[in-house]
Design brief:
This protein is α/β, with parallel strands linked by helices. The chain contains 11 helices and 11 strands. The chain has helices spanning 4-17, 30-40, 53-59, 72-87, 103-115, 125-131, 150-161, 196-210, 214-234, 241-254, 257-263; strands at residues 20-24, 43-46, 62-66, 92-95, 120-124, 138-139, 142-143, 164-168, 172-175, 180-183, 266-269. The strands form 2 sheets. Strands 2-1-3-4-5-8-9-10-11 form a 9-stranded mixed β-sheet, sandwiched between helices. Helix 6 runs parallel beside helix 7. It is globular, with a radius of gyration of 17 Å. Bound molecules: adenosine-5'-triphosphate, 4-methyl-5-hydroxyethylthiazole phosphate (TZP) and magnesium ion (MG) (2 copies). One magnesium ion (MG) binds at residues 191, 196-197.
């Protein structure tokens, strides 16, 4: 069991240490990701040039790779950065945005998990399924309506890729193949803000930078992010995605140990 006070302690550590998080991400979410990382207490940097990514990755607390607007140049940079991070024990967090939508995305996502040692892979169910060779429906970068067994998928992905798999949606799952947690925090307005998933992946990176147990780090990130979203939804007058996006940043900044204690919906799954 991961207690709320353990999650709060991880957040406190993040805010104290302000880890440098190196992101090679997509053009849609860059500014939102940097602001979200600052709000939670991390120090974001976006660096893409193949001439510098190895040097940036090795001094970072975590490297986040995101293929949302991939092209040959940034995929090459991701592999260079990832190899440097692996060499220097910097955790690599991977968001396979849109895997399954086109053959190029699927093949690139599979290449990244094959060539790099990835600490955590985070995506919607269809993306994670496509990375591990299954063919779940996906529409562009948004998950389809598949009704598969998400816990089984997370366990399979973790074992097959030798990583921690995080599958998000209405319910979030994190598994290293033997320990599995479900997090029920969150708000449906997150699906109306582009980059809500990408920012979460970078927030997982920030937690992994300060907490060596990456299952705990990922679970803590899911709970903190989901609670911040619930507080954000409460803080706006009517259902409005624009205001919610800003309130999400505000609540990533303000979320307290007391909020976590009262609101955490993180549970361990008992494997049969
Ligand atoms: P997609 O492209 O399918 O939207 P994504 O990469 O944006 O995927 P999500 O799965 O939407 O990522 O997850 C981002 C955050 O939104 C997570 O914290 C998740 O818990 C939350 N979330 C997603 N859908 C819902 C929902 N219906 N209700 C509550 N929270 C949700
Ligand atoms: N197109 C390419 S990347 C991207 C879009 C709309 C952003 C996806 O962000 P998220 O976090 O997966 O919703
Ligand atoms: Mg989304
Ligand atoms: Mg996504």
């Amino acid at each position: 069991m991961i207690e709320p006070k353990t999650i709060a302690a991880a957040l406190e550590k993040l805010r104290t240490e302000k880890p440098l998080v190196h992101n090679i991400t997509n053009v849609v979410v860059t500014n939102f990701t940097a602001n979200g990382l600052l709000a939670i207490g991390a120090s974001p940097v976006m660096a893409y040039a193949k001439e510098e990514v190895a040097d940036m990755a090795k001094i970072a607390g975590a490297l986040v790779l995101n293929i949302g607007t991939l092209n040959e140049e940034n995929v090459e940079a991701m592999l260079i950065a990832g190899k440097s991070a692996n060499k220097h024990n910097v955790p690599v967090i991977f968001d396979p945005v849109g895997a399954g939508a086109t053959p190029y995305r699927t093949e690139t996502a599979r290449k990244i998990v094959k060539e790099l040692s990835v600490a955590v892979v985070r995506g919607n169910a269809a993306e994670i399924a496509n990375v591990v060779g299954e063919n779940w429906a996906i529409r562009g970068v948004d998950s389809g309506d598949s009704e598969g067994d998400l816990i089984a998928l997370a366990v399979k992905a973790a074992k097959q890729l030798n990583t921690i798999a995080v599958i998000t949606g209405e319910q979030d799952i994190v598994s290293d193949g033997s320990k599995t947690y479900i997090c029920n925090n969150g708000d449906s307005l997150l699906t109306k803000v582009t980059g809500a998933g990408c920012l979460l992946t970078s927030v997982i990176g920030a937690f992994c930078a300060v907490e060596k147990d990456h299952v705990l780090a990922s679970a803590a990130a899911l709970a903190v992010y989901g609670i911040a979203a619930e507080l954000a939804a409460k803080g706006i007058e009517y259902e409005s995605p624009g205001s919610f996006q800003i309130e999400l940043l505000n609540n990533l900044y303000h979320i307290s140990a007391e909020d976590i204690q009262k609101m955490s919906l993180l549970e361990e799954v008992n494997h049969v």
